[in-house]
Amino acid sequence: MSNTSAFVVRRAQWESDGAGLAAIRREVFVVEQRVPEEEEWDGMDASSKHVIALAPDGTAIGVGRLLPGRTHVRIGRMAVLKPWRGRGVGRALLSELIAMAREGGFTEARLHAQTHALAFYCKHGFVPLGDEFAEAGIPHYEMRLWLKP
């Protein structure tokens, strides 16, 4: 669990924290970025691991998920409410997801980064793979991070 004076990041369970996790994703992806509902809800949440960032009053302000695969983990659904962006929430969420991947014994993490977030992920050691592509009508790059044991 990650702690700052302004927010807390903790591991979450879809069964008990799903409403808060879904509310953030709906606000950021479906409302703000106009991702179609059917593309946002892919049926993978129950089998994924999740993190949630909470404001001091307990309100959900950011989320992310980790989807374990056979050879690597996929980080995704990273979203932070607009008033909390630029305050370290995304960094704290990503750090916790990377820690979870390492704990799971994975040596590689991948993600699909929106093009505007490339620099953010590069600062955390991710490198782009291949060319830009569209996902839900938004430009993305696949990125990889080698996880040292």
Describe this structure in words.
Helix content is 30%, strand content 37%. With 149 residues, the chain is of the alpha+beta class. The chain has a single domain (2-146), classed as Aminopeptidase, CATH 3.40.630.30. The protein has an eight-stranded mixed sheet, with helices on both faces. It is globular and about 40 Å long. The model has no long low-confidence stretch (mean pLDDT 93).
Helices, strands, pairings?
Elements: E1 2-3, E2 8-12, H1 14-32, H2 37-40, E3 49-54, E4 60-68, E5 73-80, H3 89-103, E6 108-114, H4 118-123, E7 127-135, E8 138-146
Parallel strand pairs: 5-6
Antiparallel strand pairs: 1-2, 2-3, 3-4, 4-5, 6-8, 7-8
How many runs of DSSP E, i.e. beta strands?
8
- Mean pLDDT comes to 93
CATH architecture: 3-Layer(aba) Sandwich
The structural class is alpha+beta
Instruction: Name the shape in a single word.
Output: globular
Name the helicity range. Answer: 25-40%
Q: Characterize the biggest β-sheet.
A: 8 strands, mixed
Give the name of the CATH superfamily: Gcn5-related N-acetyltransferase (GNAT)
Radius of gyration: 14 Å
How large is the share of residues in beta strands? 35-45%
CATH class: Alpha Beta
Order of the strands making up the biggest sheet: 1-2-3-4-5-6-8-7
